[in-house]
Amino acid sequence: MKKLLVKLLVFVTAVFIISAPASADMLPGYEGGIMDDMKYREMIFITGQPVLLEGSVKVTPGRMRDGKRQDRITYNLSSSDGSVKLSRSITISVTLQREKGKDQVRTTYEIVRASETVTVKRDRTTERFTLENYSFTASSVSDISAAVDYTTTVIRGRKVYDFNGGKGTVEVDISGKGVGYSSAWGSTETREVKLVISSNRKADEKNGTQASSWTGTVDEELSSSRTVEISYVENRPALMSFDGAYAVTTREDSTVRYSYSLPRLDENGLPTGKQNRGSELISLSATPRVEMGYIPEFYDMAGHWARQDVGRLAALGIMKQEGNYFWPQIPAKRLEFVLAVGRLVDINSRAERWRDSSEEEAAPAFEDLSLSKEDASIVAALAEMGVVEGISPRRFSPNQNLTRAQVVTILVRALGLEKNVPRMYRLGFRDEGEIPAWAKDAVYVGSSIGLVRGDEAGYFRPDDPVTRAEAAALLNRFITYLKDDLRRDFRDRVMDF
User: Fold this and answer.
1) Do residues 214 and 271 lie in contact, with contact meaning Cβ atoms separated by under 8 Å?
2) CA 436 → CA 418, 432, 440, 448, distances in Å?
3) Mean pLDDT over residues 425-435, rounded?
4) Does position 172 have pLDDT exceeding 80, yes or no?
5) Which domain covers residue 73, as residue numbers?
6) In a domain, 241, yes or no
7) Which of 77, 107, 381, 388 is within CB 3.0–4.6 Å of 13 for a Cys-Cys bond?
8) Do both 213 and 305 map to the same domain?
9) What percentage of residues in the chain have a pLDDT greater than 90?
10) Per the record's keyword annotation, is Zinc included, yes or no (predicted)?
11) 217, 249, 278 — which closes off a domain?
12) Is the same domain home to 299 and 171?
């Protein structure tokens, strides 16, 4: 039952925190910087002043063996005027453990090797900060569902730098936390990190400078997101075979805000007794990726209230077009809806990444299904993750009509939110007593997040069959939740950018 889920958990955590620059994760490592597909930016403070650096980062993920791997990240950065340069190489050990009986994984990150040098040119002198010790650990836990992966992280660390070959030290204490999610329709990771910097310099009789010490703090608020937008591109020429088409645009952006409180230093680097307080905001965006959808054509959807919903899903390949009629008024069938949900959450692509080369693909679970390999994989994966069930252990009943209660239960299970219900609640529908006990939690969650609603008279009508048009509208709301509502909740409520 859990083999496929183990692969998912490994993939999710591996990608979420440390990934290649081409991925959705634009926060490489834990050094407080952000990146796009062209460059990396980071602000450092160990010199006693905020210095913005820019350059290149290379992430080399290791191969996972027995739940462990080592990733290497190298940085080559400099300030805009070239007076400050940074060279850094870090090897991080990643260890994954799955909680027995739960769809969760715990991941630990530790620095096993690190080197870093910062050089600062000041007139005729050069200051050098050399990393002597770097103790670091981060731990995350991920909860996995068919549609969304949710992760929370805690960060602790300490850096010690040598200043100019034994003439002083700089210590940086690191503490922070992060949350995030990832789905086929978007992802967001946010981190809040606090740095406490302590500098101690010895007296230098040769240069006539006295001993000094200072302490400063920096608060880093980082956010990285991948967003997906669906737009209709209308054709202006009249003599074309189709009026327009849908386009899917994927954007990746990252933002970091540094809020610092440092001492004001004189020309010799000595604290003056005054404070230097400020805030800097840095944003980067990768080049958008655009993909055109198919051109659906249904003769019976002209002027229909669900025309746009059906058109979007057909263009994206979520609801397959078979012939030129959609038949919006007939009931949706179990199999067609389950396949649409699987395509919507991209379950097969995710499952392929979870599965290693030695693992056999799950066999079809139901005797009354005769499906293509792709569709059989969708049903098997969703059944294995508890999103759908058969009417018996070996029968799926693919042509059975779906009720409103069944549809909302499938969608909420795919989100993994059926556990997030209060102990006592009221649904607020006039026919609350007619809602099956097995569906009440899902109806509560689905109505709370805007997936489903009652009719104008306040009835939910749990046993009413869902038409194909209504199913299309529900699936579009599901997409909107995944690409918009989750992002607002994770990013906009945590980070006030």
Assistant:
1) yes
2) 15, 9, 6, 18
3) 91
4) yes
5) 3-217
6) no
7) 107
8) no
9) 63
10) no
11) 217
12) no
Distances in whole angstroms, Cα of residue 439 to Cα of each of 148, 262, 322: 21, 56, 32
| Total count of domains within the chain | 2
Residues 319 and 448 occupy one common structural domain: yes
- Report pTM: 0.83
3-state secondary structure of 383: helix
Question: Are 101 and 204 within one domain?
Answer: yes
Distance CA 163, CA 84 (A): 15
- Whether the predicted pLDDT of 9 surpasses 50: no
Token code pair at residue 365: 């679970």
Residue 230 falls inside a structural domain: no
**Both 203 and 305 in a single domain?**
no
Residues 33 and 174 in one domain: yes
| Lowest mean per-residue pLDDT among 5-14, 39-48, 62-71 | 5-14
Same domain (yes/no): 337, 206: no
Which helix (H) or strand (E) element contains residue 314?
helix 307-315
Assess if residue 183 is contained within a domain: yes
Encoding tokens for residue 470? 């209504």
Retrieve residue 107's tokens: 């991941």
- Ranges of beta strands (E only) in 446-493 are none
Nearest to 86 by CA among 127, 124, 48, 122: 127
Structural domain includes residue 74: yes
198, 199, 200, 202 alpha-carbon torsion, rounded to 10°: 180
Tokens of 447: 């109505």
Structure tokens given for 334: 């179990």
Residue reference for tokens 């608060």: 219
Q: Strand 104-122 and strand 168-183: pairing?
A: unpaired
Single out the residue in 167, 195, 217 at which a domain terminates.
Answer: 217
